Amino acid sequence: MIIRFGFVSGIGWLIDFCLFVLVGWLGVPVWAANMVGATVAVLFVFFASVRHVFEYDGGYLLGKLIAYIIYQVIAIIAASLFIDTLTHWFGLAPVLAKVLVTPLTFYANFQFMSLLTTGKLRLM
């Protein structure tokens, strides 16, 4: 399951990363560039993985989407601020800061999607 989620999330990350770089190149602050890329990517990951990765076949998908959006708003803001901190306080390049934060966000997203769709966390 985590391999399939990794594949879907990898595509989502490429979408996120490309938008992050493009929007940053346009002069948008690092935290805002991350919010744009991440928002588009997490919506893609949700719709691509809820049924195909986690094999959720129940109803109330709208309710799960709302819960996922609430979680992602918090997660994206936290990750964006963390990336911004790494960039401005520690002098890391925005792209490097984004890459360093990615494993944390991947694992947290996998756990949340698992909890949302199966009712349990999946420890690796």
UniProtKB/TrEMBL annotation:
Transmembrane segments: 7-26, 32-53, 65-83, 89-110
Organism lineage: Bacteria, Pseudomonadati, Pseudomonadota, Betaproteobacteria, Burkholderiales
Main location: membrane
Annotated keywords: Membrane, Transmembrane, Transmembrane helix
InterPro entries named among the record's database cross-references: GtrA_DPMS_TM (IPR007267)
Membrane keyword on record: yes
Pfam family, one: GtrA_DPMS_TM
Membrane topology: Multi-pass membrane protein
Superkingdom as given in the UniProt entry: Bacteria
Domain GtrA/DPMS transmembrane: from-to ranges: 4-117
Name of the protein this chain belongs to: GtrA family protein
Protein localization: Membrane
